[in-house]
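Changelog-adjacent note: as of this version, every example in the card shows the full chain rather than a window. The one below runs 956 residues end to end.
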Amino acid sequence: MNSNINTILKATEYGIINDKIEANLNFTPQLIINDNTQGLKVLNQLNEELNTCSEFYFSVAFITYSGINILLEKLKELEENNIPGKIITSNYLTFSDPKALERLKDFKNIDIRIYEKEPFHIKGYLFNHKDYLSIFVGSSNLTQQALLSNKEWNLKLSGIEDGSLLKEINNEFKELWKDAAPLTPSWLEEYRKKYNEVKKLRKNITSFDIKTTTLEPNLMQRKAVKALSEIREQGKDKAILISATGTGKTYLSAFDVKAFNPQKLLFLAHREQLLVQAEESFKTVLGAEINTGFLSGKKKNYNCDYLFATMTMMAKKEVYSLFGTKEFDYIIIDEAHRSGSESYQNIINYFKPKFLFGMTATPKRGDDKDVLSYFDHNIALKINLQDAMESNLLCPFHYFGISEITIDGKLIDDNTDINKLSCDERVKNIIEKINFYGYSGERVKGLIFCSRNKEAKELSDKFNQIGYKTIALSGANSQEEREIAIARLEEDLRSETSLDYIFTVDIFNEGVDIPSVNQIIMLRPTQSAVIFIQQLGRGLRKWEDKEFVVVLDFIGNYENNYYIPMALSSDKSFNREVIRKTVSDGSAFLPGCSTIEFDKIAKHQIYQAIDNSKLGGIRNIKEAYKDLKLELAHIPTFKEFVRSANISLDIVIDKFDSYYNLVKDCEKELSPYILSENELFALNFITKKIGKGKHFQSIELLESLTNFENDKVAQSKIKYETKSIKTAYKILAHEYNTIPKSPKSYKQHQACILAEKSENYITPSQNLKMYLQNPTFKKCVEEIIEYAKDQYKEKYINRYKKTNLSLFKQYSYEEVCKALNWERDQSSVMNGYMYDKKTNTLPVFINYEKEEEAINYQDHFVSNNKLIAISKKSRKIGCKDWQYIYKSKERNTKIYLFVRKNKATTNSKDFYFLGEIHPIGEAEEIIIDNTPAFEIKYQLETPVREDIYEYFTIAE
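Full-length structure tokens:
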């Protein structure tokens, strides 16, 4: 009998009859949709099925190249693992892309056929997992929009092949397969001709529609223009826009100029090509009849209403002094992060416009100059990569993180010899990958970023020897040479003069606009998230013949690899869990049709970099504080820091104990916001013990104690009765931890006694009553309580069964003891597992990666719902430990599983909570270091979440 039958029956009951029962969610009937705010994408569900199937069958009406491109990494894995697949599609409406069909035909494990008998509108996916089947039936074709962003409904069902529904679907597929014709080169050639004719016709219709449409501002532009108008209404005459590359900043400035209607305008940029593009944008918005002119090395038009000037020309005293200080009503500074330079300062200090407007993708400079101050800290709008994608302002990107080659047995790293970076083996690997992952459009137009100019030149030469048309550019090339190369890259058709690739190091990081670029190749370590986004941004401008841009990032053993997921997710919290989730499952949370995919080796490298990095280091915290202070032009309040800082407050708590301590460390003068020594002890204690929101009863109790004197409701709440309240009391009465013996530590301990017990009621201690008389202390405590409540609601409100734990969240030893309502913190004696008699609970703690000497007997997952664990040493079958575990069912002992990567990872001491587990089968005696132990097989009630499972097992 199939072992999955009862599981599937229970899961089906859960899905369509009663969602209150416990069931394996992998088998429940599900609605498969696209909603990145919930981390839901049809693509991710498709990939999950492909990860575990033994064969697959697709029957879809339409297939586009974009739909295949986002599946390439998975299709390659399936081919390498000899997983066969059959795909039926059609020529219906001549919609399927011949390039996509040809690409599928290249996979040796995939058989593809074309159904032509009658209109074909099926969208079905069938996966055989040997002992069960899964199907998706609904609305999604194999297109990037259907798999990633469209409103779609697909029903997922699981069952056994003997079920009548699955038999029907199987038989229907077989009938369609018999009626469909194999995809042959001759059929493909004829279809390609017809497809190109239809494509040309559709393009002509679209072009006509565009020409008859008036240009309207997009959502971001409307918001910014409104914000700029409000800034001016407040009597302010300066503002800056911080917006990701490719979001239409120049058009935005034109729309605002239209609203402002200046008599004379000055537009400043550092390159003439940008001025030409800006003038075109302004004429599109304001009309071709506006009186424009240029002031650059080649052109000198002084008498015009709208002057577009290079900074180098206008910064000359003999040039800017030709104009009156109030000559221009409106001045725009493009790439405003450069405005701290002496040349820009000469211009800014000379002219007195009615309005000064700066635009930049990032205001940060390497010299720490306060760029925002030049615009009086008036930020009209901030648009990061994620925001721009949400608003559909950018071309979708398909990012592939690919492992670098090994040279002399070592993966390329930060110290690899420059001569080895252009070796034939590396060149061959790069070319194989750029051919495999492809591009969108008629021909490739790529930028390749290298680590050094010598590497760029040598790689360019080797590409040219193979037959590519490339050039290497550096700071030594003139502006004219660069612009000629860009024009050659942008040619529509491949010709004698066209270029396939431009190799460079960093001269294209900013200030260059090449909209038709359809491939970005990164052959260098990522030194910062800012530089990564700058280089990625070179391909994100929309272009009529570009449906997506392919980004290939060759990842070596680089120290700063963790910057990659940080940049891709636009998350700057420095939270390791968030960064790891981007590596494992980033596409699910990206807006629109962009995707993130890493191969297995690259993932492993990034996970290691995340674990080993000093992400939450004091330097990063202080930098985030300083950046926010510069932006706000004052010391950030607690709420401002939580809302706007580029780092999580949880990390501040880990390093500084409290936000107050961080401010105190960064500021010389805090008066009148001073806390006494004991008040600071207490505030740090409160922040550390409750600030992260994991133990809600402590938060509630502290809130009641804080409001005790003025709140009769609060007074009536605090009865010393439930286990959780008793635990919360012990925490706030400072009875939960061992009392320290050293005089200094004892003094701190006594200062942190915040609760007392009178008969059966809990009241605030004399300490707390006294501290609350200080308004600064009271405000700090109220703020941390509010923050802790918000954290609880956001992360921990969904409790597991009847515990105070949340599934797949991270906890320290002490936090586990509190959550299970143990009498005291047992962190100091916790080793592997521990039984608590009063609560009848047994938490099991696993360090997944052991030291080298313990490798032969290592706890490990057999699958995502089975684990093999090892008992403590000197334990035999039948001993007390064995009884706690193997008699847990009859004694109703709850065994809970907690896993972390390893105890040596200094930055990640907490364990993932993975739910309740049960021993299965019989224990097996083993010998470790000549002492007895036994092996336990555990069944997990809930399968480990995919990204966490991958994080633990990727090195296996």
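Structural remarks: Residues 208-213 have pLDDT under 50 and may be disordered.
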